[in-house]
Design brief:
Layout (H helix, E strand, L loop, with lengths): L1 E5 L9 H12 L13 H10 L6 H21 L4 E5 L5 H4 L2 H4 L3 E6 L6 H10 L4 E6 L17 E5 L9 H13 L6 E7 L4 H7 L6 H17 L8 E8 L4 E8 L3 E5 L2 E5 L4 E8 L3 H10 L3 E7 L5 E7 L2
Parallel strand pairs: 1-4, 2-3, 2-5, 3-4, 5-6
Antiparallel strand pairs: 6-13, 7-8, 8-11, 9-10, 12-13
Helix pairs in contact: 2-9
The structure holds N,N-dimethyl-L-histidine.
N,N-dimethyl-L-histidine binds next to β11.
């Protein structure tokens, strides 16, 4: 059975709240934007290209952990779960788990249900015995799933260290919401990037080909489209580096020359070297992350890392 449900109202590109949020960030003393605006159609393609880069180790390292420890992970989880895939995209990561996990229901969740149509239709043909329910929901603020999502044996799946793009406080709140959405037999399967050598981290977010630079700079084109700003992409430089004190990668766009950016009813002057903070990507130690899971209420944790201890996958029970 295949079903699609759009829960969150989709943001209109001219939505006043989007404009207000973005313009407030651009006008702040230290200008910033939310990382979600990195993902317009081209930004999503550039992120897929980042995942192929030799320097960007998270995607392949997480895949290696699933390959190496797949049997143990499946044993910890058991079969017949309601597999809820948060930020599912093309559903590929979860689909690789189907043969081992044999879920009873698969629930990919993404901001727009239209992103899920094609992949889910293909998957349903491949796995006809799994009930599939595509859900369009912005789960960053609340996690209210439709009634057709079973309560039994919910397994929330949040791979790729997407948790790293929240501040630690927001991560705790997010994990607590997942915990609250689980019955006693619920659990979470999550991937998280670990603290490591600074040079490796810097290279992963400032690659030789400049794909991450293009991903970051593309934000300016997206802002021009959303806000009517007149950002000149060539007037800006990508900066991506590890901030050891904060245990996070920071991405910024830096003005190459002094310039004024204009939009209908406003403008902002940027001095040469002034930056717009566009993304944080927090890195955890095994300890700080398992502590966070426990603080959120999760118990009976099983965690797996790769031989270099660059990335960790954890399964945690709600009770
Ligand atoms: C989606 N997220 C986990 C990526 C990360 O590593 O923080 C986004 C990214 N930004 C630059 N490269 C990749």
């Amino acid at each position: 059975m295949l079903q699609f449900i759009q829960c969150t109202e989709q943001e209109n590109e001219n939505d006043r709240s989007v404009r207000n949020e973005l313009l407030a960030g651009l006008s702040a003393a230290q200008a910033f934007t939310s990382p979600k605006y990195l993902y317009d159609a081209l930004g999503s393609k550039l992120f897929e290209a980042i995942c192929e880069l030799p320097e960007y180790y998270p995607t392949r390292t997480e895949a290696l952990i699933f390959k190496t420890h797949g049997r143990a992970i499946a044993q910890a989880i058991g079969s017949g779960s309601t597999l809820i895939d948060l930020g599912a995209g093309n559903c590929a990561k979860a689909a690789r788990l189907f043969p081992a996990l044999q879920p009873a229901q698969y629930v990919p969740v993404d901001i727009s249900v239209s992103f899920l149509h094609e992949s889910l239709q293909r998957l349903q043909q491949q796995f006809p015995s799994i009930v599939m329910t595509g859900v369009g929901l912005d789960f960053s603020n609340e996690l209210l799933l439709p009634d057709s999502v079973r309560n039994e044996k919910r397994l929330f799946f949040y791979p790729g260290s997407s948790i790293g793009n929240f501040t630690p406080e927001a991560s705790l709140a997010f994990l607590q919401r997942i915990h609250a959405a689980c019955d006693a037999d619920g659990s979470l399967l999550i991937g998280v990037d670990l603290v490591k050598d600074k040079a490796l981290l810097n290279a992963a977010y400032d690659d030789a080909l400049g794909v991450t630079a293009a991903f970051n700079l593309n934000l300016l084109r997206h802002l021009n489209h959303l806000l009517g700003t007149d950002f000149e992409v060539r007037g800006w430089r990508h900066r991506g580096f590890y901030n050891q004190q904060e245990s996070r990668i920071e991405m910024h766009l830096e003005a190459a020359t002094a310039q004024t950016v204009r939009w209908p009813q406003g403008e902002r002057r940027f001095e040469r070297g002034e930056r717009i903070h566009t993304e944080n990507s927090y890195k955890y130690t095994q300890h700080t992350f398992t502590d966070l899971l426990e603080q959120a209420g999760f118990r009976r944790l099983s965690c797996w890392v790769d031989p270099q201890q660059w990335f960790m996958v954890c399964h945690a029970h709600a009770a």
